[in-house]
Amino acid sequence: MRARLRAEMIDEIKAIARRQLATEGANLSLRAVARDLGIVSSAIYRYFPSRDDLLTALILDAYTALGDAVAAAEGAVERGDFGGRFLAICHAVRDWALANPHEYALIYGSPVPGYAAPADTVAVATRAVTILGGVIEDAARIGLLRYDDVLPPEVAGEVARIGEIIAPSVPIGALSRTLGTWLQLFGFVSFEIFGQLNNAVELPGPLFEHQMRAQARYIGLPLL
Amino acid sequence: MRARLRAEMIDEIKAIARRQLATEGANLSLRAVARDLGIVSSAIYRYFPSRDDLLTALILDAYTALGDAVAAAEGAVERGDFGGRFLAICHAVRDWALANPHEYALIYGSPVPGYAAPADTVAVATRAVTILGGVIEDAARIGLLRYDDVLPPEVAGEVARIGEIIAPSVPIGALSRTLGTWLQLFGFVSFEIFGQLNNAVELPGPLFEHQMRAQARYIGLPLL
DNA sequence: CCTCTGTCAAGAGCAGTGCTCTCTTATGAG
DNA sequence: CTCATAAGAGAGCACTGCTCTTGACAGAGG
């Protein structure tokens, strides 16, 4: 009963906070949120015990939104089209980031100063990369992604441990290449969102497309 | 005379602000800086007309410090060792970032909300990548880096324009690979600094070394 | 039907912030 | 030695996160 009203109130606060995020960034103001909501500032603390808790909620929402976007994009591609599934993931990440730059900054930018991410975030944070893991896992199972890159033992162990979680049957050579690709993907998106590409790149879109296609080839995912 | 005292004061303010940066991040407090300096808060405005100007100064300092670190590391490697020069650059970036995580966050993390980087920053910001450009330029001049990667026309133009600035004689195929490497480098460092690798990677150092060596091979820079 | 309890909003208040303004001091150039 | 100028001090404005107390209201138990 009243729990439903409470949930609606929480959603409303988060929606306004998200809007605030666009103009104020991570240091949004509880009082301004309260003002927009027609509520006195202290009332917000009935729903979020502190500003950090509001931020945590926004961060969790952002991770799940990104995960949903990636999952939807990848799920819409025919299972056998591994390159297509890979590209769908890449574009989903970039498109979501471009559409929600401040939420992207919240989760992939500088950590909020006093803020420490609670442990609940790690599960939801790894969803996107797990989906990529599924793609290379499927590709490896039908015999693709056979690389004999030689890794130093300590690196091999490190990569193997990651592989056990997201793609157990992928050889570590291909896994290491996939990791590099993941890093390049987020390097590109972060540079683009954070303005590091200004005055240097005019059309990031086609450049991104090309870089990711090159990475698909490098990993060994066939492009139709 | 008077100007020297003023310069010393500015340096002192920046030094204390940098220290503050470590604990408070980008939303450091002018009043706290003033307190640490034994000065009343309004006196700071004699030296920096606003908090953003202080941040700009810190950002410029950070870019030049990173540029210096990269230049020193790259300059210490024998000219003919292209792979070594490349790896020196990569490690210089990562080492500097690990040693100065908050300054790294200032320049490569989320942009400060109300803050807009003045045009002076772009020149100093491109120093590091320009040094990498010099390495592949030298390598290309002796006949390395011959790739026939085919790029879509609009991407080719984009990459060529970047190449004209940092490495005019490098074919765009290799240039595009270098760009991807640069993105991966900063993707790695950002993930490591911003905690995205926590609970996933135990020894980032060796993993970084391996990834960058793989990229050197991918670009075509010979490793001794 | 009444009372009692738990939830919510409101308001005041504390300590802190960036920034502006005015006043006072002292220092170095002429 | 004079005096314009630079620099610090202090008060004040509007804002922030957060706490505490007070008052209103709804629903459950007797």
Automatic annotation (TrEMBL), chains A, B:
Family annotation (Pfam families): TetR_C_33, TetR_N
Organism superkingdom: Bacteria
Residue range(s) of DNA binding per entry: 29-48
Statement: the UniProt record of this protein carries the keyword DNA-binding: yes
Sample GO molecular function, one term: transcription cis-regulatory region binding
Transcription keyword on record: yes
Record's keyword terms, sorted: DNA-binding, Transcription, Transcription regulation
Domain HTH tetR-type: start-end pairs: 7-66
Protein name, as recorded: DNA-binding transcriptional regulator, AcrR family
Organism: Asanoa hainanensis
